[in-house]
Design a protein that fits this description.
TIM Barrel; Lyase, Ornithine Decarboxylase, Chain A, domain 1; 3 domains; nine-stranded parallel sheet; globular; binds pyridoxal-5'-phosphate
């Protein structure tokens, strides 16, 4: 036998064996043969005389050949091999040298979008950068810091953990959680100085009492339901709500807000009804002697389309990342998409005419193409529904993605024929291609993919950006 098979699939060649060690290969074999087929070698190496390999394994491990294999598996440290290598050197191997797919985030685009929207809404109106869901897949910490340096003053997140991550990375700006967290999370809000949205009396009172116990104020924003029917105190019950809770001295109403269900729709009637209800709710609070604090309602679509509902602050999410919330805003404001998706070719092959490619073989090679593989699949946000319906950009030219998109890889075809003013392309292993982005005159956008999929750009961006792909800032 030339080698010993280790149970993790690696093969050693010249390592000395510790005494009494029974190599798993001697027992189960490495070629599918059963232990009974190769008794002599195993029993000799085990040093147990004339037993069969099966008996040798049983004697050593107590449980037969299968048991021996299982034993080795359970007791070998999974990183045992790594111990021979310098851990610092291993760590130094960059993410982009480990797998050839990644997202790129252009922080200049984030700067441009923040300051463009800030100009659009005018002086005296604050900008909240909404960085929930890891900044829509763009990376919350870097995007928050960039936005705060480009005119944003406030941050919006969805969860307590998202807020804690920002604080732990030294982000100091006011942070609002855009819904009411569980009561059990209240200590975290106080410790990390994160404001909740509030709309139940139970939360308001417990939050206030916990703050009081620490000698702290309990700042919050009041969420008002004006028609979306997701969260918030009903628009005609805000005064009653405030009179129920405001006896508590620690409670500090810092802002009052609502959220539009249809700011991105062509139809505007529902939007107008929500606006009217919100203005009435704010007036009622003021009439009752309650200062509503920072009044805000607009998401990206409303901030761009309806400057008259900007009030004291707008909550900019999708627009910060350079994506339009709806087609109507395209002509209103100049945004730059921040995310692009990149890969390098891992395989190039000639596939004879009529042979299939990928699971299902729905695509058949026309013979005049090369098939290239890239390591990005639906586990990386390249949704399977895009199979055969998107292009990969190589050398500034669009190439059709072909065959079903797999979990971790997909294929595209490079047409080798030269026609029109097309250059002949020369795909090579290691060559960089674009899955989303622009090169020369060729462009594939997150909106293109969202349209094919029948979804919104938000979901596609988060699919790529919150996946296992590494992220690079440029
Ligand atoms: C997510 C969110 C926003 C941001 O919406 P965009 O359409 O991405 O601008 C604003 N307000 C609330 C309450 C949200 O949940």
């Amino acid at each position: 036998m030339a080698s010993d098979n280790l149970p993790n699939g690696f093969t050693g060649f010249s390592q000395r064996k510790p005494p009494g060690f029974v190599p798993a290969s001697g027992i189960v074999g490495n070629d599918g043969r059963g232990a009974a087929d190769m008794p002599a070698a195993a029993s000799r190496s085990a040093g147990v005389g004339a037993m069969s390999a099966y008996e040798a394994a049983a004697a050593t491990f107590g449980g037969g050949a299968q048991g021996a294999f299982q034993y080795a598996r359970d007791h070998a440290r999974p990183d045992a091999g790594a111990a021979q290598f310098d851990p610092d050197k291993l760590r130094m191997i960059p993410a982009l040298d480990r797998r050839w797919s990644w997202t790129e985030i252009d922080l200049n685009a984030i700067r441009h979008n923040a300051s463009t929207v800030k100009q659009h809404i005018g002086r005296g109106c604050r900008l909240m950068a909404v960085v929930k869901a890891d900044a829509y897949g763009h990376g919350a910490v870097r995007c928050a810091k960039t936005a705060l340096n480009s005119g944003a003053e406030y941050l919006g997140v969805a969860t307590v953990n998202e807020a804690v991550e920002l604080r732990e990375n030294l982000v100091n700006a006011p942070i609002l959680i855009l819904s009411e967290p569980p009561l059990s999370a209240i200590p975290l809000l106080l410790a990390y100085k994160v404001m909740p949205s509030v709309y139940t009396p139970e939360f308001a009172i417990q939050y206030a009492e916990a703050a009081d116990a620490f000698g702290l104020r309990a700042p919050y924003h009041l969420a008002v339901n004006t028609g979306m029917n997701r969260i918030g105190v009903r628009h005609d019950e805000v005064v009653a709500f405030m009179s129920q809770v405001s006896f508590h001295r620690a409670l500090d109403l810092v802002g009052t807000f609502t959220h539009f269900a249809t700011a991105d729709s062509a139809e505007t009637l529902d939007f107008q009804i929500q606006t009217k209800r919100f203005i009435e709710a704010i007036s009622a609070l003021r009439a009752a002697g309650v200062n509503p604090g920072i009044v805000h309602a607009a998401n990206s679509a409303a901030a761009m389309r309806y400057p008259d509902v900007s009030f004291d602050m707008v909550r900019l999410g999708i627009g910060l990342y350079g994506l339009h919330p709806c087609s109507q805003t395209r002509s209103m404001i100049d945004l730059r998409p921040a995310m692009s998706v990149h890969a390098r070719i891992t395989d190039v092959r000639t596939v004879p005419m009529s042979e299939g490619v990928s699971y299902g073989m729905n695509y058949r090679s026309p013979g005049s193409v090369k098939i290239c593989t890239i390591p990005i699949g639906y586990a990386d946000g390249l949704r399977r529904g895009l199979s055969g319906r998107t292009d990969i950009i190589m050398e500034g030219q669009r190439c059709h993605q072909v065959g079903n998109i797999c979990m971790d890889q997909c294929m595209f075809e490079v047409d080798l024929r030269v026609y029109g003013n097309r250059r002949r392309l020369d795909p090579q292993i290691g060559k960089e291609v674009l899955v989303v982005g622009r090169e020369g005159d060729s462009i594939v956008t997150l909106d293109d993919l969202a349209n094919v999929l029948g979804t919104i750009n938000y979901e596609v961006a988060i699919g790529f950006g919150c996946s296992r792909m590494p992220r690079v800032y440029v």
